Amino acid sequence: MAVQMPTDPGSVPVDRFELDDNVIKALPMAGLNVLSSEKHARSFWGPTAKIVVELPEGGTAAYFLKTFDLQAFGKTMSVGEYESLKAIHEAVPGFCPKPFAHGPYTNGSREIYFLLMEFRKFGKMPANPDSLGKALAELHKTSQSPTGKFGFHIKTCYSRIPQEVDHWDESWCTIFKRHLTAFTDHAKLKLKWPELDIVAHCTLEKVVPRLLLPLQEQGRSIKPCLVHGDCWDGNTAMDAKTGEAMIFDVCTFYGHNEYDTGNWRAPRHKLSTAPYLEAYKQHYPVAEPREEWDDRNRLYSLPYNIASACYVPGSDQLPVIFDDMQTLCQKFCPEYLEEKLSELRGENNEHSRIGNTRNGQKKHGDKDEHEN
């Protein structure tokens, strides 16, 4: 039921959300009477709100407002999520909230951006295995890349990491390598662990082509599918009205359908339990070579876990991503891995030798013990 805004300014509720002028202009129809705008839910990127309006023909409609208080980066995030929702809604209407608008705030001095979409009331979170598996597979099967290639027409963001997917290529291997490189580069700056940098390099140069090129060789092919990009417990739910699975907080691109299940590998997620993967596989069979599915799944889990290690306080994913990359490298390029690790050990020994030599050198002006 709609809630009327108070007529007495002194009785404004503490959870009232002040709407920016550009948000009001972005409402789907001009001249709508805003009945209420209240803080609702939460986001890492800025305040969020539920807006209820009175429709001209009677009745009400509700919208969800998401803000990005991240300066210029907020524009990249808001536009990317808008285009992601738009693409998913066009492919499978109802599977995600319908987006209406995005843009900058005009009031105040802060550089804030917003995203306006339909309001959907959540039921159970995460969505049920059967419902989610069927709906996600439908998105993967129904969506059609506008170019027939992998990639996307605009940059999207996973957490604070821009995804390098804003280009088109017939090779999934090429797209994924560029995508994963953005995450490993981020890890190099944030995590500062030389051994991790080595296994990341070996993974990119040897493991990625070894596992992904065969998907499109010897008569095999995979379809560029619209992926959620961040399908985990907190971004799926049962729609309270329809009783069907729905998704949100998406960072989409056209990739290998199995990429979405890479995020289900982490035991921290309820989606990691067997019923979810089994339900999905019933509707979308495993790609050939089937026997390498688990290796691909481990590879596809890396971007998600790297972001967790970089940005989630108290995350325990740093040893996980190291072990996963080391496991893949030991299986597919053990000699190359050992070569690169040996080079690192040699560099460390050389630095240690130089450091010891410098520490032992007599400085200009120092006297030997026998000098007066």
UniProtKB/TrEMBL annotation:
InterPro entries: Fructo-/Ketosamine-3-kinase, Kinase-like_dom_sf. Residues 344-353, 363-372 have a biased composition (Basic and acidic residues). It catalyses: N(6)-D-ribulosyl-L-lysyl-[protein] + ATP = N(6)-(3-O-phospho-D-ribulosyl)-L-lysyl-[protein] + ADP + H(+). Residues 344-372 are annotated as: Disordered. Pfam families: Fructosamin_kin. GO terms for molecular function: protein-ribulosamine 3-kinase activity. Gene3D superfamilies: 3.90.1200.10. Its EC number is 2.7.1.172. PANTHER family: FRUCTOSAMINE 3 KINASE-RELATED PROTEIN, PROTEIN-RIBULOSAMINE 3-KINASE. This is protein-ribulosamine 3-kinase. It comes from Coniochaeta pulveracea.
